[in-house]
TrEMBL record:
SUPFAM superfamilies: Glyoxalase/Bleomycin resistance protein/Dihydroxybiphenyl dioxygenase. Gene3D superfamilies: 2,3-Dihydroxybiphenyl 1,2-Dioxygenase, domain 1. It holds the Pfam family Glyoxalase_3. Residues 9-184 form the Glyoxalase-like domain. InterPro entries: Glyas_Bleomycin-R_OHBP_Dase (IPR029068), Glyoxalase-like_dom (IPR025870). It comes from Methylobacterium jeotgali. This is Glyoxalase-like domain-containing protein.
Amino acid sequence: MKPPREGLFDHAVLNLHYGVDEGEALLASLGFTVSPRGYHTLGSINHTVALGSSYLEIVGLDPANPKPRKELLDSPLGLDGLVWSSDDIQAAHARLVAAGLPASEPGTFGRPVSVDGHEVEARFEVTRLAPGWFAPARLYFCDHLTPELVWQEGFSNHPNTADRILAVHVAAEDPAAEAARLATFLGVPAPGDGRIESGGVPILFETPETVAERLGEPFSPEARVPRVAGLTLGVRSLDALETSLAPRWAGAALRREADAVTVPAAACFGVTLAFREGAGG
């Protein structure tokens, strides 16, 4: 019997179109253990980075596939997907429809996974909202029918000691309005402070200027808004993180502070990754 996951923040999706090779290399260079490439029955390809009960997924398209997954091409590069767990997709879909949200009919898909030299299929059931209803990102509920194939032993052991997502940062001109829309999707009260705690990972909605200041980025009025601007990731040791970095990061590309190491958006497909030791977003 699979363990309950109802309501947990499941994963964040980094959509790289035809740049999955570059994304895999970048995450590995930052000291992550990256799962082997997966080939979805939907026509996309992916890699995952397990982070406690959630994960970061890079997803994109196989140049050899003549029928690319259109929804990915129609979505912008960057962190364009936020996914929560459900143990009953039919019930999740019914709630979304009852709330008047444009939810897709539940559907299943899979991808081959190798375990001890044997190929098995990781399977998922999802319902998703129509693109554009929540402007910062695509929204899904996902039921992992075979969670043991996603969180395999060893996938969570990262040389950089990352072990959780501490916060998701959303930049919006009207943070309260975007937060209220996400709250409707999740079935929770709209927050008064732009912070949604549902699922164990805070989703922080702030103005572009405030997000840039929080993440230590220069404010760019040309940047797309609203958008998911970055993630704060927890590590057990910043020293171990530094030791795990590939030589490409030896120069000035990273920002280093006493309690954080930050990968600027310009070096990471438009997404800021802030590593912090201990708790806090």
